[in-house]
Amino acid sequence: MADGGAPRVSCTLNGRPAVLQGHPMARLLDAIRQTGLTGTKEGCGEGECGACGVLLDGVLVNSCLTPLAHAQDAAITTIEGIAEGEMLHELQEAFLECGGAQCGICTPGMILAAHELLSRTLEPTDEDVRVALAGNLCRCTGYMRIFESVLEAARRR
Amino acid sequence: MIPRLDDYQLVVPASLRDALDDLARHPSARPFAGGTDLMVTLEAGHLPPGRYISLQNCRELLGIQQVNGSLVIGALTTYTEIRNSARLAREYPLLGRAARETGGWATQNRGTIGGNIANASPAADTPPVLLVYDAELELVSASGSRRVPYLQFHRGYKKMDLAPGELIARIHLPGRAERTGAHSYYRKVGTRRAQAISKVCFAGTICVESDAVQDVRIAVGSVAPMPVRAVRTEDALRGQPLDANTAAAAERTLLDEIAPIDDIRSTARYRARVAGNLLREFLLR
Question: Are A42 and A64 in contact (CB under 8 A)?
């Protein structure tokens, strides 16, 4: 193993093999955005706001706190990988219909956190949704429509 | 803004053995687990430059298992694994409660219990619980391993009984039969319920029989340079009837036993008041 400098990380990004380049301690967030996938947002840059949420091997992480080295051989899913072609994910549909997105900065992270909730819980309650999204900040909506969107998506499954 | 990364190295050894060998060759290197604390420090520009050794591939440090009557938690066990463990919920319920209140899900999925201990923040959420449960730490290095009672591990603000070349490998929780009438309590007080760093964090277990306190354990976070086991407060309670007089005496002892300060998150006065309130809620619920 080369000391320190190994600049290339092989992984899959939204189902396709990808090579991400950068310092092993660089933020996964920046490496993802540098590929042109800018749906993953930077909010606080310190793990408080959840805007940079992605799924790493199916599990929600803050990509601003994930060093690039930890993406080696991992399957990364960003907001761009949630829809199936032109078919939006049920969470995306519900956010559209219920007004769950306003300025949109928090939305990718909200949807990925909600994705994790729906993968863990079959019939989430309002409290479950609040707990699941506790790590995601929104400064526009007041949250009620976001919670409603997630509950609506859960009902439609 | 991220600082110059050229000043840092992050290597990812393939196994625990390789990680320990690397640590032995580079005694000033620091272990890197989930990154939920170190990456924040990095981005704030406060992470000391140098070599960091990722424990990502140290599978030996994963998982929760029963070994000779103790429950052994690998240092790389995440908060999510801790909060989902039915066994922990049954036998050591305060640990899952602390894990649930540590950050949001994204943090819980990556943050590890070993990292929480080694980060040595006085405001950390699991240490008071580990103190209450009389945890022991298993430390490993290339040349062997040793056990340290957790009570003796923290030696002052960010100072630990951890030698260069050593890692926290496992947390041992001694067997514990839940006694009839036993009650356990955990409460973290922060700016908001979710995703906050604590202003005061309180863990306790108590068992009252024949109208007297038989067994009591209390530990508090964010009220001193390191997590505090409130041994004198426990002494003030043991053998006493559980009433308002006992609680008042215990509260005076607790306030004498802790040393809260003013900082960015709270004030010494607020922390002392809340610590006392939590003690009374724990005792008189």
Answer: yes
**Could you tell me the domains of chain B?**
5-54 (3.30.43), 59-173 (3.30.465.10), 184-284 (3.30.390.50)
CA distances, B228 to each of B3, B57, B62 (Å): 35, 33, 27
pLDDT tens-place string over residues A6-55 = 579 999 999 999 999 999 999 999 999 999 999 999 999 999 999 999 99
Contact A68, A28 (CB under 8 A): yes
Contacts of B164 (CB under 8 A, 6+ apart): B23, B27, B28
Tell whether B107 is within 8 A of chain A (Cβ).
yes
Structure tokens of B3? 């600082």
Yes or no, beta carbons of B109 and A60 under 8 Å apart: yes
The model's pTM:
0.94
Distance CA A101, CA A92 (A): 10
| CATH code: domain of residue A94 | 1.10.150.120
User: Do residues A70 and A100 both lie within one domain?
Assistant: no
Interface check B264 vs A, CB under 8 A: no
Q: What is the ipTM of this complex?
A: 0.94
